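Supplementary Methods S3. Complex input for the flavin mononucleotide-bound model.
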Amino acid sequence: MNKKISVLGFAGSLRKDSYNKAILRAAASLVPDDADLNIFDLEGIPPFNQDLEKEPPERVKDFKVKIRAADAILISTPEYNYSIPGVLKNSIDWVSRPYGDNALEGKPVAVMGASIGMLGTARAQYHLRQCFVFLNMYPLNSPEVMVPFVHEKIDKDGKVTDPKTLELMKKLLVSLIDWTLFLKTRSEIK
Ligand SMILES: Cc1cc2nc3c(=O)[nH]c(=O)nc-3n(C[C@H](O)[C@H](O)[C@H](O)COP(=O)(O)O)c2cc1C
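Predicted complex, serialized as structure tokens:
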């Protein structure tokens, strides 16, 4: 039997009742049978200090190990001031260093996000996609999952109740697994 595709998901919010954490939990329950989705919480990752990049804090080391063990990455990002939240960028900066030891190198990645506003994190997602260029990641282009007015789509227990959102997230996961399998086949050819 083939090994399951392992996806590591993280949300760019530390908030206990974060909507972006909530959609990530929903994604974990929608993942196809041939895959697993494990969630890493960015809580405890300190501000990046380049003096420490060669011997980073334990939490960063742990994050890098989990990223390397994963076949693919799923990021759920809020939008802060039309861009990526500092906690998310900070965490990406840590795991991309030191130069030549970028844990995200060559990983397939999918993005989603939820906002209480009208554009559902679109601007933050495009800024995040810009980082993937230097990180040399392989982003999934479609579907784009931008969940606007998320407070109307999640119940008081943090469960996603909107069928269209759930359907779109399921499509994203299936596409990410297909994309990951495609890239794996390609790298076997090389
Ligand atoms: C510092 C800050 C900046 C924000 N900027 C934006 C923004 O530019 N666009 C937007 O749609 N929402 C913005 N919001 C609202 C967030 O979408 C909302 O707080 C969201 O719930 C954050 O994600 P979370 O629930 O996963 O923590 C901002 C919130 C904060 C705290």
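The pocket of flavin mononucleotide is lined by residues 13, 15, 18-20, 78-82, 115-117 (CB under 6 Å). The first helix runs from residue 19 to 30.
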